[in-house]
Design brief:
With 605 residues, this protein is an alpha+beta fold. The chain has two domains: 12-212, Glutamine Phosphoribosylpyrophosphate, subunit 1, domain 1; 220-368 and 422-605, HUPs (Rossmann fold). It is built from 26 helices and 19 strands. The strands form four sheets. Strands 2-3-1-9-8-12 form a six-stranded antiparallel sheet, with helices on one face. α7 (226-245) crosses α8 and α13 (390-398) crosses α14. It is globular, with a radius of gyration of 24 Å. It starts with 11 loop residues before the first strand and ends with a helix. The mean pLDDT is 92.
């Protein structure tokens, strides 16, 4: 993609006045000319007045407006029943509340979706709310006389706006050490990421306010009987799937053969004609990455057509990362270009209006095996928990001794134990001295944990892993064919799972037992009784080895090395076939190549 081509990730552009009217008008005119010239006819001017301007893709970013024009919403919004709302719904909020904060709070309490909401008052004040899960990508930069908000930064938009932005060396260093830092931080200097669930003041009249917090959901929850908890999960998943499938035409589901995507397929099959659904499965040449038998069983149970594709390590061409580099940040998800292209082809062949996955299920249903679960149980049940089965279950699931588990429970009785780390950082030893000097470990912590210190440790892990899964909302190539939806990461599902304790979600030795039982009658027996997951590390390792000549040339003489962010001798030693074939973190060079492609895009190489 050249810098002047239409950007497939640019679903909208918003400009908000913050100073002189004439300066704002001139800036809007310059962006309008650039949109006309480079937007490919997809971005249309929707609102343009003396306070704000909005351009958007009508097929990807619907616009809702209250009758008085004081509430504007770009994106998809649903009420608590899963019904898509209209402008009249915003009229009721506008009439009942009169400040940006009260209107935003009312919206959060009665609706959910993927959106960016703007609240305007009569005095020229504008506040903005990004949906609390962060499905809608939203970055902002400050211009002379205005704020510019967009999900992507193509060259032509940056030039037209006169924005002074570029890769931030400190944030790139953090990214290399811990890729998930991109979920909560902008990687560009001069650009900030709008935090989800936070009311952002764009005119400087008030401070930003956190209006939605996972910890608040946890604290407001009450204990549930197991049958009630199962019903909570079913209602939330069905609601998310019903809302996101309505009016979408054909639906393409990525069906891995695992539990989570089978739950999504089963939910869709309850409410959508099977003729409107296709499933696609990707298998590797290695047995642990081939789950076609399970995918076939799930598709057959619901009468769904299954598309089967095989991916090969030898056909995965890392050199193509350069031509697909994003603008706001490097691609960190959907890096198998061959698989992405097969998904695009299938979506177009079937005329899919939306692509759905089971991503996020491991986190929301708590697949992780941590001994901290027993500590959470002890906080709820006191001394009796030491003599019950939960400590033994936690020890067996985590593969540790019962003495360790009892020790953690005892220590927590005296002083709150810190949660085990739920975030996997890369080997920072590959970083250059310059990069290591730039790193501040506090940036690795998700803002979702800022007010979670008093929560039980396994619940803090639960929040952290859900926060990390927001990486799946980052742009992928398949987004060019159809919107990509992850129903298990929808706000109703996340809130339902946060309202349950971790011991309620993971009450026995099985993997994700509550979710498994809640959807039992929609799952083939082979998936219901399976206690494990597919594995693709051998495939990934072979793909890295197959691309070693390219990787060595691309990385050893690239931007990461020339900027002093990666230590060249250490990287040279790591890019060795004997080292990589059995390496646990062999995907590191693939991520580095994606970051390299992004840096080269900005440097013009």
């Amino acid at each position: 993609m050249s810098g002047s081509d239409p950007d497939p990730e640019l679903d909208y552009v918003v400009m908000v006045r913050k100073g002189d009217g004439a300066t704002f008008a001139a800036g809007v005119a310059a962006v309008a000319r650039a949109v006309e010239r480079h937007g490919g006819g997809k971005l249309a001017s929707t609102i343009r007045d003396n306070q704000l301007a909005i351009w958007r893709r009508s097929d990807r970013a619907p616009l809702l407006a209250s009758g008085d024009g004081e509430i504007l919403l770009v994106g998809d919004l649903f009420d608590k029943s899963g019904t898509r709302v209209c402008g009249e719904w915003l009229d009721r909020i506008s009439a009942a509340a009169h400040t940006g904060e009260t209107r935003a709070s009312s919206l959060l309490g009665t609706a959910w979706g993927r959106y960016l909401a703007l609240f305007c008052d009569g005095g020229g004040g504008v506040t903005m709310l990004r949906d609390p899960i962060g499905e809608m990508q939203a970055y902002r930069t400050e211009l002379e006389g205005s704020w510019l908000i967009a999900p992507s930064w193509p060259d032509w938009l940056v030039e037209a706006a006169g924005a002074r932005i570029g890769p931030d060396p400190a944030m790139v260093a953090h990214l290399l050490a811990h890729p998930l830092v991109a979920v909560d931080h902008s990687l560009l200097s001069g650009v900030s990421l709008l935090q989800p669930g936070v009311l952002h003041d764009l005119t400087g009249n008030t401070f930003d306010r956190v209006l939605w917090s996972p910890s608040a959901i946890v604290r407001g929850a009450a204990g549930q009987r197991r049958d009630e908890a199962s019903a909570v999960l079913r209602r939330a998943v069905d609601l998310a799937c019903r809302a996101r499938s309505a009016g979408q035409g054909h639906i393409l589901v990525q069906l891995s053969g695992g539990l989570d995507s089978a739950i999504v397929l089963g939910a869709l099959a309850q409410m959508v004609d099977p003729e409107r659904i296709s499933a696609i499965n990707f298998a590797t040449a290695y047995g642990e990455g081939d789950e076609r038998i399970l995918a076939r069983a799930a598709a057959r149970q619901h009468g769904i057509d299954l598309i089967e594709r095989t991916v090969s390590a030898e056909t995965m061409d890392f050199s193509r990362l350069a031509s697909t580099a994003g603008t706001a940040g490097p691609r960190l998800y959907g890096l198998d270009i061959h698989e992405e292209e097969m998904m695009i082809a299938a979506a177009r062949e079937r005329g899919a209006g939306v692509i759905m996955t089971g991503q996020g299920g491991d986190a929301v249903f708590f697949q992780m095996a941590y001994p901290d679960i027993a500590v959470d149980h002890a906080r709820d049940h006191g001394v009796s928990s030491f003599f019950g089965p939960m400590p033994w279950i936690a020890a067996q699931r985590a593969g540790c001794s019962i003495w360790r588990v009892w020790g953690m429970m005892l220590r927590d009785c005296v002083r709150s134990v810190p949660a085990s780390s739920a975030s996997a950082a890369f080997d920072a030893s590959l970083l250059g001295a310059k990069a290591r000097a730039l790193i501040d470990p506090r940036r690795f912590r998700s803002p979702w944990l800022d007010d979670a210190r008093d929560l039980a440790p396994a619940k803090r892990i639960h929040i952290d892993t859900i926060a990390n899964c927001r990486l799946f909302f980052s742009p992928t190539l398949r987004h060019q064919a159809a919107p990509v939806i992850h129903p298990l990461m929808a706000q109703p599902v996340i809130e339902a799972c946060l309202s349950l304790t971790v011991p309620e979600l993971a009450f026995d030795l099985r993997d994700r037992p509550l979710a498994r039982d809640a959807f039992r009658n929609r799952l083939p027996d082979a998936i219901y009784r399976r206690n494990g997951k597919g594995e693709t590390s051998r495939y990934s390792n072979r793909a890295v080895v197959a691309n070693l000549p390219f990787l060595r040339d691309y990385l050893l003489d690239g931007e990461l090395v020339s900027r002093g962010l990666v230590d060249r001798p250490k990287l040279d030693a790591m890019l060795d076939e004997d080292h990589l074939v059995g390496a646990v973190k062999a995907r590191t060079p693939l991520y580095y190549a994606s970051v390299e492609a992004w840096l080269r895009r900005w440097s013009g190489r």
